[in-house]
Write a structure and sequence with these properties.
The protein has 240 residues and is α+β, with helices and mostly antiparallel strands. It has helices spanning 2-10, 14-23, 28-32, 64-72, 94-97, 119-130, 156-171, 199-202, 207-223, 231-239, and strands at residues 55-60, 77-85, 105-112, 138-139, 142-143, 150-153, 182-185, 189-191.
């Protein structure tokens, strides 16, 4: 019941339309990545200075199921939690956030080892395969401010790296349309309900996951082979 309810909430018309598209020969990869067919993005010209100890990045851009799944497969990432950022603590609830008027965006909190992956590399993954930064207040089938593209910076260095990278990508015309990703201070991150955590891992056959999120992980493997962590290693990290 939980699984079908969540799919209906996210994309009420998806299953029948998906069936018609498959009959017409449209692949999941094509459907899920429309608008993301760009040349490989450059490395960030501005990146983080060496740091000791685990660091945290908070990013938003569409459904947090897909974001969590992508970043769990990135080398150096120790833990990814789905949640809400941008609004107040008392509205950090899925039903309230789904109304689109709380200020929250579905987000992920990424705990990572800066000796293995840098903040700039995480942003490169984010812009390359995790989200379409040119879509305003939506991502693919999901529409509303809660699905907007946002980098929530935790300190001045993260702000500097994020704004510089967006400027770099814009100057290079890396995308056919303007980047609308917001760069705003992190005021708080509130973990989502337990049934949202690792949703893609627990429901790999859900049509929403098959068409919208699984292709992102496949693209991560293709575009970032040196950073990609296979499924069996992701499980060991999560259980650590």
């Amino acid at each position: 019941m939980e699984r079908s309810f969540m799919s209906i909430r996210r994309f009420k018309w998806f299953p029948p339309v998906a069936g018609l598209l498959l009959m017409a020969g449209v692949t999941a990869c094509t459907l899920a990545t429309a608008g993301n067919d760009h040349a490989p993005l450059p490395d960030p010209a501005v990146n983080a200075t060496p740091a000791q100890g685990d660091q945290v990045a908070v990013l938003a851009g569409g459904c947090f199921w897909g974001l969590q799944s992508v970043f769990e497969h990135v080398k150096g990432v120790k833990k990814v939690s789905a949640g809400y950022s941008g609004g107040a603590a008392n509205t950090a609830d899925y039903d309230r956030v789904s109304d689109g008027d709380t200020g929250h965006a579905e987000s992920v909190k990424i705990v990572y080892d800066p000796a293995k992956v840098s903040y700039g590399q995480l942003l490169k993954v984010y812009f390359s395969v995790a989200t379409d930064p040119t879509e305003l207040n939506r991502q693919g089938p999901d529409v509303g401010t809660q699905y907007r593209s946002v980098i929530f910076y935790g300190n001045d260095e993260q702000k500097r790296i994020a704004t510089a990278y967006i400027a770099q990508l814009s100057a290079a015309h890396a995308f056919p349309d303007a980047i609308v990703t917001q760069v705003v201070p992190l005021k708080g991150f509130y973990a989502a309900e337990s049934y949202h955590q690792d949703y893609a891992k627990r429901h790999p056959d859900d049509p929403y996951i098959v068409f919208n999120d699984a292709p992102k992980v496949s693209h991560l493997k293709q575009q970032f082979p040196d950073l990609y962590v296979p499924d069996h290693e992701v499980v060991s990290v999560l259980l650590h």
